[in-house]
Amino acid sequence: MRVGVFTALLAQMSLDDVIKKLQSLGVSTVELGTGNYPGDPHCKLSMLDKKSELKEFKQKLADNGISISALSSHGNPLHPDAARAKHDAEVSRKTILLAEKLEVPVVIDFSGCPGDRDGAKYPNWVTCPWPPEYLDVLDWQWEKKVAPFWTKRAKFAADHGVKIAIEMHPGFVCYSPETLLKLRDIAGPAIGCNYDPSHMFWQAIDPIAAIRVLGDSIFHVHAKDTQIYGPNLPKTGVLDTKRYTDERNRAWIFRTVGYGHGAEWWSEFISTLRMFGYDYVLSIEHEDSILSPNEGLTKAVRLLRTIMIEEPPAAPWWV
User: Fold this and answer.
1) Cα–Cα distance, 140 to 266 (Å, whole number)
2) At what angle do helices 147-159 and 177-187 cross, to 10 degrees?
3) Which of 55, 152, 192, 194 is 20 to 30 Å from the Cα of 215, by its Cα?
């Protein structure tokens, strides 16, 4: 297992400066965004049509000993606005094609969220079974929008030798292990997850226990933490809609690794991932509104490098 970085947190820097920064921290693996929600200036889909640009990009990474763990196109390809859905789906499609050319095995995306009907204006995230019309909406979403799109997209990815890692995130149809595995059952083994424990914490899902539920569906992992603020929780519950920058009044906020849970917790998280077959990359994602990207990245790298399991286990003497 090794430490990587989702370079969206360094979006203000050039690729050359990003490489220098990561080399100074001893990091040689990156996750690169290709568009949609996070964006990322370091990896451009235009390379698909420009062989010289693609060759130059690959050579720059190779010359600096940098590997790519995943390409990320987090978007909403099921958006009820047809133009928005088409845009996000096209970014996702091209990202799969670029991953194939770059020999990157994983593309990360959100599952998306439709509206409540054709012609709706905004997504409709169903979170409760009553009044009963909510379940009608949910059934319609999965039958008419979710299953058809992701079944086709999973086949497309598999045909190009790429796996799709869906990041479970509230606001989209796949936000929990149960909903992720439901999509995987429908669309097949090319669909798995980009496992971000920070999104489990604030839903009161134990991220370590959930590894046992997800098993071999974990294709990629984000290293990001969440801090729960007990005094605010009884007032707001976990579905807190205040802005992330209103830290003192929220029930929870995203934190840098180690600022929500310490090294002991992260050691157990890493050990359990390996126990269930994951031995790839922990990609640091910075969304901590209290620490700067530079400080958050530096502290996360230092903590993870002290507890990372990097060597394959030897066979026990008694086996």
Assistant:
1) 39
2) 70
3) 152
What are the pLDDT digits (tens) for 192-203?
999 999 999 999
Q: 314 lies in a domain? A: no
Give 201-208 contacts, CB < 8 A, sequence gap 24+.
201/225, 201/226, 201/228, 201/252, 201/260, 202/226, 202/228, 202/238, 202/251, 202/252, 203/170, 203/175, 203/176, 203/238, 204/238, 205/176, 205/177, 207/269, 208/265, 208/268, 208/269, 208/272
Whether 202 is in a domain gets the answer yes
Residue 279 has phi, psi (to 5 degrees) of -145, 50
- Other C-beta atoms within 10 Å of 270: how many? 20
| 308 in Cβ contact with 2 (< 8 Å) | yes
pLDDT of 182 > 90? The answer is: yes
**For the chain, how many structural domains are there in total?**
1
Give one word for 291, left, alpha or beta, with left for phi > 0 and alpha for psi -120 to 50.
beta
Residue 174 has pLDDT above 80, yes or no: yes
Q: Which domain holds residue 96?
A: 2-307
* Residue 174 falls inside a structural domain: yes
Dihedral pair phi/psi, residue 103, rounded to 5°:
60, 40
Q: Is 317 inside any structural domain?
A: no
Give the predicted TM-score (pTM) of the model.
Answer: 0.96
Beta bridge partner(s), residue 166: 109, 193
User: Domain with 68 in it: what CATH number?
Assistant: 3.20.20.150
Q: Token digits for 291? A: 């620490």
Those residues with Cβ within 8 angstroms of residue 258's Cβ, 6 or more apart along the chain or in another chain: 225, 266, 299, 300, 303
